Amino acid sequence: MRSFCLTAVVLISACQTPRTNISTIEESSLKTTYYQKAEQFLPRNISQLTRNLTVRPNWIGDSGRFWFSEQNSENDSRFFLVTPQSEMVEPLFDHQKLADALSIKSKASPDIYLGLNKLSINDNLTQLTFSLNSHNYQCELPSYECIEEKPSNSDKTVTTDEQGELSPDKKWRAQVINWDLYLTNVNTQKKNRITFDGSEEQPYAVNNANPRYQVNQDPDTIKPELSLYWSPDGKSLITHKLDRKNVGKLHLIQSVTGNGLRPRLFSYYYPLAGDKNIPYGDIIEVKLDSLTYQVLDAPKSIQTYYGGPIWGW
Fold it and tell me: CA–CA separation, 114 vs 107, rounded Å?
């Protein structure tokens, strides 16, 4: 019996295929090459190879027309006017004339690149307002006479994190306090509470947090990102109410915080496949004339991961 067992062990050992002799250095180099190739397809790298994947329309009154912006191959901003009735797309304005006018105003060399922010145009397409290099301008069309607007108390830059979102006419400011929606009259500074049932699990206007923007921040001081969409005339806004009750969370631990040895915990809503509870959102409209809101008669929007259930209007 002992001889049989020994023979079996020898036979099994002899039948095993010898392992390919690849050095540790070669294995490491091969893995690095694979990782580098895979890294090229990460979203942050792919995004640098693509542009203008979506169009966000800016509607012009009740005309049915809208304008949008895009970037060319040199990453220069361009603005276009769309007339759906005639299937026509044309420049919103003469980009070169505007660049020349701004170069004279700012005493800078003319450059066809226009890094304009907060651009708006009136319904008659005769007046442009925008900010450029932290300066606000108003330009008349088609003369392209531009003046720099001096900032006032109501015109100063405000952010969602600090004071909320200003309406296009700069008369109202929308913000979230303790998960409820408030509207503040810019002139009188009177706060008007619009909703009364907001909570951390069922907040108004709040997006599901993306943890990449939380790292290296104190979790107790992180302000939620909001989704607030004003109508062009500033008389109403669209937002949402999230329902993330009983939705599961994921947790990240930052071991090196630069502030002692104690790690820092980040928790965020993130449903997984097979979960019974996922975040839903009701779309609501707020009317400025009555300072009231209504839930729109629309299907609940699913918000499975980061961001909010509204993509703009």
Answer: 15
| C-alpha dist (Å) from residue 151 to 43, 123, 199 | 38, 24, 36
Burial class from Cβ neighbours inside 10 Å (0-12, 13-18, 19+) for residue 121 reads buried
User: 173 falls in which pLDDT band (50, 70, 90)?
Assistant: very high
Q: Rounded to whole angstroms, how far apart are CA atoms 248 and 269?
A: 6
What is the number of other CB atoms lying within 10 angstroms of the CB of residue 137?
A: 21
pLDDT digits (tens, 9 = 90+) for 272-299: 989 999 999 999 999 999 999 999 998 8
- Strands of 163-291 (E only): list them: 165-166, 172-177, 180-185, 191-193, 229-230, 236-243, 249-254, 264-269, 280-287
SS3 193: strand
Residue 136: which of 154, 159, 119 has the closest Cα?
Answer: 119
Threshold 0.70, pTM exceeds: no
Domain ranges of the chain: 58-149, 199-302
Give the position of tokens 């907040």: 203
C-alpha dihedral over 98, 103, 109, 115, to 10 degrees? -60
pLDDT tens, 202-215?
999 998 888 877 77
Closest CA to 94 of 107, 110, 78, 83: 78
Residue 11, both tokens: 């036979």
- 284 touches 185 (CB < 8 A): no
- Name the token pair of 111: 């450059």
Contact 226, 176 (CB under 8 A): yes
The answer to whether the beta carbons of residues 77 and 117 sit under 8 Å apart is no
Q: State how far the alpha carbon of 287 is from the alpha carbons of 237, 278, 290, in Å.
A: 7, 29, 6
Burial degree of 185 (CB within 10 A; 0-12, 13-18, 19+) = middle
